[in-house]
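U., I forgot to send this yesterday:
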Amino acid sequence: MAVGGRMTITLEDFARIDIRIGTIVAAAPNPAARKPAYRLEIDFGPELGRRTSSAQLTANYRAEDLPGRQVAAVLNFPPRRIAGVVSEVLVLGFPDGKGEVVLVGVDRAVPNGGRLY
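Result:
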């Protein structure tokens, strides 16, 4: 069903998307990427472990500033190979005024692996 020109989903549809918080533990440029990107290693806590992601964040973030930052990511999409990196999670962000990624995070520390609700 569409409301206001937008497709609507049910609460059950939303609940199937596994969005979790994790802490970036490593970030490095991915030289194989066509568009500048980083290979991220993100810790989602002892139950979920560490996962990798490829993310085009170079316009707004330096690799050395990313470790320690908590970010939101989707964990239940199938892995994709992106420029030689097996991207296991989709890190979430919004476009800034220039269309570059601004990461979604939290304003205070929370335990890694916490699920969005």
